[in-house]
Design brief:
A seven-stranded antiparallel β-sheet has the order 1-10-7-12-5-3-2. A four-stranded antiparallel β-sheet has the order 6-11-8-9, covered by helices on one side. It has a two-stranded antiparallel sheet with strand order 4-13. The longest helix is centred in the N-terminal third of the chain and has 17 residues. It has about 290 residues and is an alpha+beta fold. About 35% of the residues are buried. The chain has a domain of about 180 residues: Jelly Rolls (Sandwich). The protein is globular and about 55 Å long. It contains eight helices and 13 strands. Bound molecules: 2-oxoglutaric acid (AKG) and fe (ii) ion. The site of 2-oxoglutaric acid has 10 residues, from strand 11 and strand 12.
């Protein structure tokens, strides 16, 4: 059912109100068109680790999402750091041109999940059950749940003019995002699929990309209303600096464990503070540890 509601995961808008269900029949999971849509997403994810579904959001809803995001973008937590593609330090003695030693600026803002009005459109998109099921099917999970972390559950990534999101591999397995705001120039999502694997960091090839090699590089522009599914753990990627304006994307987080949330120290590192739920999680984890013989 498309509009099932529950206490803390309310969705004010139905699937057909939010998404272009004529093109993307999210609410007709038994139809051949739905099957074709899932297959197409799986194809993109298999060949390129990426699937882009253009104009997924209905225009009126998109306008409301953009307005919500724009108002909240003033409250975004701004990050400015020089990071290598792995978000780590370089071990002593690492050559200067080695990827571990290549630190580039990452400058962007993130709107915290608790800022979104629970009766707003962005929260409804995030809590939509049909979207969650589709994402799980496309990415090959039996079931996914919306992330309950109060801050990291859903975020707007705000990239002001000139702010690059430098080359990196994600720590999470996959990302689900919607384009909200885009500039004509810059703001490109560039990626090189399968550059590393579980057993091979493939530093030589990573270094070549960092040095400007564009041989296997793919580039896409996430336009307002587009949906993107992306496996970023093995795919080096970046967002180039937008020119002549700001870029904004909406990031939705889904998890396999419904009760999973982050710890207080990690929340403080990312957001500058922690929520009572993060401290409760610390206690829960400490309790679990003391029970282990
Ligand atoms: O804004 C985006 O499209 C994604 C940015 C990104 O790579 C990330 O959040 O890890
Ligand atoms: Fe990323």
């Amino acid at each position: 059912m498309s509009n099932v509601r529950s206490a803390d995961q309310t969705a004010r808008y139905t699937t057909a109100e939010l998404f272009d269900v004529q093109t993307y029949p999210l609410d007709q999971a038994d139809s051949p068109q739905y099957g074709a849509m899932v297959r197409e997403a799986i194809e993109g994810l298999t060949s390129d680790n990426c699937a882009q579904l253009e104009n997924f959001i209905r225009p009126d809803i998109l306008a409301a999402m953009q307005q919500e995001a724009d108002e909240l973008s003033k409250e975004a937590v701004f990050h400015q750091a020089n990071l290598n593609p792995y978000f780590t330090d370089a071990p002593e003695g690492t050559p200067a041109d080695h990827p571990l030693n290549r630190f580039s600026p990452r400058r962007h803002g993130m709107v915290r999940g608790d800022r979104f009005a629970r009766d707003g459109v962005i929260w409804s998109v995030f809590q939509n059950r049909d979207l969650c099921r589709f994402v799980a099917q496309a990415l090959g999970y039996e079931q996914l749940h919306t992330y309950r972390d109060p801050y990291a559950c859903t975020n707007v990534n705000v990239q002001p003019e000139g702010c690059e999101f430098a080359w990196h591999f994600d720590n999470n397995e996959f990302t689900v995002s919607f384009g909200l705001k885009q500039t004509d120039e810059g703001g490109e999502f560039e990626y090189v699929p399968n550059l590393r694997s579980r057993d091979d960091e493939n530093y030589d090839a990573v270094q070549k990309v960092l040095d400007g090699d564009r041989t296997n590089l793919r580039s896409l522009k996430l336009r307002p209303g587009d949906l993107q599914l992306f496996r970023g753990g093995y795919t080096l990627h970046r967002v180039t600096a937008p020119k002549g304006g700001e870029r904004q994307s909406l990031l939705l987080s889904y998890v396999t464990e419904p009760d999973d949330i982050t710890t207080s120290d990690k929340a403080i590192r990312i957001w500058g503070e922690a929520h009572p739920d993060h401290y409760a999680r610390d206690c829960q984890l400490a309790g679990a540890e003391s029970e282990t013989p």
